[in-house]
């Protein structure tokens, strides 16, 4: 009999018996696992994890408590600065989108502009307006690194330490700033002026190493220029980004990200010579991109050539 053919009755019987035993063992294991997890859950202190509460006759209610290692901070002062005016602005943001829940990202930026971080009250407000669960809002707020779960300083200073920026000195800049400011990564200075964070790529490799202050670029930085920059920020001096506007506070920048302009969009250049190098060469050489009509024509010519080639191939056969 072929090795791929039907198995004998004895083999089938053995497999069936073995399968039943495996299912029994698996069911026992699953039951034990559920008991173990239930007992472990009872030992977790309230406020350190996501909890679902159910009272007799009531639906489950999600309380968005998260671990200290990266969740929303519920351990501090829970007073909120969210007012009815804030809620109205949240509704305005939601009204911009055909599907209201698509507004969650800018809504969370608005919450941060008011609260200085993502707060429980902000989560609840977004969930209520969008008619989704607080768990869904919390999932987004704890996924993206631009949403902060603990109070931020007046200015957010980010140092790129990825690939080219690291090679060009980004790691040294971050290390020197940590020593200069007396803080570690994602920590805030005692005066509340600066929160320092290492950032992943800022899409500005042509100006490496780069820093960002409240999401505005500072190009070709050095340890000395970086320390001078944070000193000026701590002294509340006026600072202008390399390619962008004068520096506002982090909260003000968050309001802009929520879709409320501050009138500074046209301040300063938006790109530098390194970014424009390709365009400069094209202009010097007289190169131009094809127009849509030319592209369509070229595409049709290519299709005609393909068809002619295919026909010739058939004739050769």
Discrete helix count: 11
Structural category is alpha+beta
Termini Cα gap = 45 Å
**Sheet with the most strands: spatial strand order:** 4-5-3-6-7
Considering the protein shown, what is the CATH homologous superfamily of the domain at 44-151?
NADH-quinone oxidoreductase subunit E
Low-pLDDT regions: 1-31, 33-69
Query: What is the residue-averaged pLDDT?
Result: 79
Radius of gyration: 29 Å
CATH class of the domain at 44-151: Mainly Alpha
Percent of residues in helices:
40-55%
Largest sheet: 5 strands, mixed
| CATH architecture type of the domain at 44-151 | Orthogonal Bundle
Write the CATH fold name of the domain at 44-151: Arc Repressor Mutant, subunit A
Count all strands and give the number. Answer: 7
Q: Globular, elongated, flat, extended or rod-shaped: what is the shape?
A: globular
N to C succession of SSEs:
HEEHHHHEHHEEEEHHHH
Strand content: 5-15%
Enzyme class: oxidoreductase
Biased composition (Low complexity): 294-317
Organism: Candidatus Avipropionibacterium avicola
Protein name: NADH-quinone oxidoreductase subunit NuoE
List keywords for this structure.
about 325 residues, alpha+beta, Arc Repressor Mutant, subunit A, Glutaredoxin, five-stranded mixed sheet, two-stranded antiparallel ribbon, disordered N terminus, 2 iron, 2 sulfur cluster binding, 2Fe-2S, metal ion binding, metal-binding, iron
List the helices and strands and how they pair.
Blueprint: H1 9-43, E1 51-53, E2 61-63, H2 84-94, H3 104-115, H4 120-130, H5 134-141, E3 155-160, H6 163-167, H7 170-181, E4 187-188, E5 194-199, E6 211-213, E7 216-218, H8 223-234, H9 250-257, H10 277-285, H11 292-316
Parallel strand pairs: 3-5
Antiparallel strand pairs: 1-2, 3-6, 4-5, 6-7
Helix pairs in contact: 2-3, 2-4, 3-4, 3-9, 4-5, 7-8
């Amino acid at each position: 009999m072929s090795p791929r053919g039907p198995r004998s009755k004895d083999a089938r019987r053995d497999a069936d018996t073995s399968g039943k035993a495996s299912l029994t063992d698996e069911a026992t294991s699953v039951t034990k696992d559920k008991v173990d997890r239930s007992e472990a859950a009872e030992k977790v202190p309230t406020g350190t994890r996501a909890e679902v509460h159910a009272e007799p006759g009531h639906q489950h209610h999600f309380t968005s408590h998260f671990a200290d290692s990266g969740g929303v901070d519920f351990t501090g002062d829970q007073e909120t600065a969210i007012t009815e005016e804030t809620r109205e602005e949240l509704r305005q943001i939601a009204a911009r989108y055909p599907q209201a829940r698509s507004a969650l990202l800018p809504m969370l930026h608005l919450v941060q502009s008011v609260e200085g971080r993502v707060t429980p009250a902000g989560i609840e407000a977004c969930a209520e307006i969008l008619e989704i669960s607080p768990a869904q809002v919390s999932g987004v707020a704890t996924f993206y690194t631009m949403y902060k779960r603990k109070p931020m300083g007046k200015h957010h200073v980010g140092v790129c330490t990825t690939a080219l920026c690291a090679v060009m000195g980004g790691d040294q800049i971050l290390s020197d700033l940590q020593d200069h400011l007396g803080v570690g990564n994602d920590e805030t200075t005692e005066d509340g002026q600066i929160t320092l964070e290492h950032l992943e790529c800022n899409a500005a490799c042509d100006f490496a190493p780069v820093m960002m202050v409240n999401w505005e670029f500072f190009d070709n930085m050095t340890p000395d220029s970086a320390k001078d920059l944070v000193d000026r920020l701590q002294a509340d001096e006026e600072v202008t980004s390399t390619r962008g506007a004068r520096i506002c506070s982090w909260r003000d920048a968050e309001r802009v990200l929520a879709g409320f302009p501050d009138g500074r969009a046209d301040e300063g250049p938006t790109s530098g010579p390194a970014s424009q190098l390709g365009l400069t060469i094209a202009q010097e050489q007289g190169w131009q991109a094809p127009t849509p009509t030319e592209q369509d024509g070229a595409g049709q010519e290519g299709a005609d050539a393909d068809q002619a080639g295919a026909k010739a191939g058939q004739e050769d056969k």
